[in-house]
Amino acid sequence: MEQYLSFETIQKKCEQLTNEYEIDGDRFYHVVEKWADKEATIDEKLMASFTELLVVVSDEITRMEDHVELSSTCRMGCAFCCYFPIIINEMEAKLMLAAINQFSNERQIVIQRHLSAYYKKYSKKIEEVSQISFEEDEDFKMKYRQSLLPCPLLNTETNQCLAYEIRPIPCRTYMNYTDPAVCEKNLMPKETISFEFLYAEYMGALNEFLQFLYEDGDTGIIYYPDDLYKHDYLINWMKV
User: Fold this and answer.
1) Cα 172 to Cα 198: distance, rounded to the nearest angstrom
2) Residues 176 and 65 sit within 8 Å (Cβ to Cβ)
3) Which branch of life, at top level (predicted)?
4) Which residues contact 110 (CB under 8 A, 6 or more apart)?
5) How far apart are CA 52 and CA 69, in angstroms?
6) Would the pTM of this model clear 0.85, i.e. be above it?
7) Total of domains in the chain
8) pLDDT tens string 31-44
């Protein structure tokens, strides 16, 4: 029988990270500084910065895992976390959609057909959960989770993300290091952990780049700073 880390052991390793590990913020800002000097269009610079910063977030998690000898038990085909509410701002939504538009034609068609079917199938449920205020309702995560509404980018037949490489920070930073069964047995398992604090580094670098572009007079597809302050559920940004 496979042995998994206990909740207590995971907590101790998280405490160790807090006491010992320092996030390498320079790696985030290096991405936007590099693209600021590139010969490219504004939108190309934004897209490249966006996608590369997401990679830096994932790399930083790997570095933290290595530091305290943690190994994720998340596996392909396990999608219980894909039923949580994902909240992003309009800037991130625009960049995600722009990234999807850069996928191959075949892949774009698959996603468009999937989204069309998704919003028809779940229209009533989407309307219901959209009424749950993530700003005012302290229990919004559980209420949303109880709806069993899948992420609009989840293929529920294969349990795979249709845009995995550009998945948002909440998806990218939610991890399980103990028995995978805890996700199956609990709507909101206490054993899982989130590295969502990396969002501050990711968004800080993007915001600094956009400030630079704004002062230069062109922020491309982003309406700055308004897009940074408009937040909503992913289900509402991905509507087709």
Assistant:
1) 10
2) no
3) Bacteria
4) 162
5) 25
6) yes
7) 1
8) 999 999 999 999 99
